[in-house]
TrEMBL record:
Membrane-spanning parts: none
Pfam families in alphabetical order: Nitroreductase (PF00881)
Domain Nitroreductase: 36-187
Protein name: Malonic semialdehyde reductase
Residue ranges of coiled coil: none
Amino acid sequence: MTIEITREFDLDSELILDSDAAAALFLEARTANSWADEQISDETLQAVYTLTKMGPTAMNIQPLRIAWIRSSEARAQLVEHMNEGNKVKTLAAPMVAVLSYTNEWHNLLERTTPHMASMAPTFEKNLDSRNTMAVTNAHMQAGYFILAARAAGLAAGPMTGFDASGVDAHFNANTSYSAFMVVNLGKPSGVIDRQRLPRLDFDSATVTL
């Protein structure tokens, strides 16, 4: 296998985003643990979802479901199920989103993928396939969700350290939804509590065949 030596290149010239947008979405964006004292409006949440839903999923199945945790009662219930190190973060964030997936996405094929709606009975008989597709595609959508939040001027703090069964009992009871990620959201305070961790370079993470 030949290892290609990474050459210097002009990132801006390779992107259709301007440098400010690239910085806001990728280069300068950080996971936040402290927040500005500013509430997140319903309109901002709608904007985040509007962008999130446009990311591609297999067969356009869109299995992601979001619960916005705004009330103090719901926040307290969620904190009960967060790992110890995530409790304070979850209490402090201006907004918290519980991301779940549904394995009953096939019931909406007539809306999401009309030309493949006839496959719904086949998927009804294959729970394993539905689960695999739901998990894979919801995690893709979680990535879109984080970028959409950044595009709306928010910082996102994704966490998987929580008791999923407990969260489901409180927030997903009597549904087909399964929680897989909790994301703290808010305007960042500007405080940098630690340096950015290293990223793998092009030659370490990719190969051209």
